[in-house]
Amino acid sequence: MRAVLNGKLTSVPENFYDFIIMNNLPDNEFIMARFIGKLLGEYKLGISDSWYALRIEKMIEENKLITVENKDSSHPYGKVLRKV
Q1: Whether the Cβ atoms of residue 80 and residue 67 lie closer than 8 Å to each other
Q2: Which of 1, 55, 57, 83 has the highest count of CB atoms within 10 angstroms of its CB?
Q3: Quick one: residue 46, left, alpha or beta (phi over 0 = left, psi -120 to 50 = alpha)?
Q4: Whole-prediction pTM value?
């Protein structure tokens, strides 16, 4: 992954922006789509919704987040999640 740091395009690990996700997680249950929308609105980094979703899915795999409810698997951003 590439990011602009101090005006220079730099290679960074794929978890480089994970701190943004972790620092903004609500204390209670949340809907993934609304959370991603909040991040997109607050942080103008050129990161796509799908990138945030992939990183959130990785956090679920790593047991940093729990899927509370997955009503409709055809709409993966509709998952209800919470912190571990």
Answers
A1: yes
A2: 55
A3: left
A4: 0.90
